[in-house]
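seq:
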Amino acid sequence: MMPGVPAMNITDLNRECLLHLFSFLDKNSRKYLSQTCHKLQDVFQDPSLWTLLRFSSPSELARKNYILGPALKSLSICWYSSRVKICNIEDWVKTALQKSMCSPHLNTVSDFLQEVCKRCPNLRTLTLSGCAHIGDENLIQVLKHCHNLQSLKLENCSGVTDRILVMVPLLSKRLHTLHVNFCRNITRKGLSQMRQGCPEITLQADMSADMIADRMPDDFCIPQRTPGKIIILR
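struct:
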């Protein structure tokens, strides 16, 4: 500190500077800093800080070191742990030990997505990887409530089936990118009908239809997007 220059506290900075400072911090650092005083707590809760959220495991969702609200535009939950392999084992094959390993996070992501549906109507991109316990119904609710969703990228999500391919054109008018990579219960039939019915959607399905499915696909048809009507392909 220079002689004659008064000491400056971080709270002496104006709100714009504090927001800029917070923008460089990760979620944990933001939370810890916000707990030091009411002014920083108020900055922590500013919606402009929370347009993007990234999580590297389901356990991070329970830390409450983030704000979930209408400002959220991009959400990513990507889990690459070895435990993902256990989660992807069919329930009727899992041992008691494997079921106990899945139990703590069985509904973690699906419950979180329910909150997203309630609080984040402006979500534009959703990326889920290794989230084996989410299913079609979880994603259908996202499509119903997040009308601005433009990109849905799924990887290694064994609970996802051809049903989501059916519902996408019915529920999401702005979606232009759909990835279902390494999702073993997506079939060639589902992908083929999706491409025919919705050619304007960029569809990617690396390995999905080449993997061994553990569910029998239901017969279905993909509705085709048109400006004024829906055509059912049979």
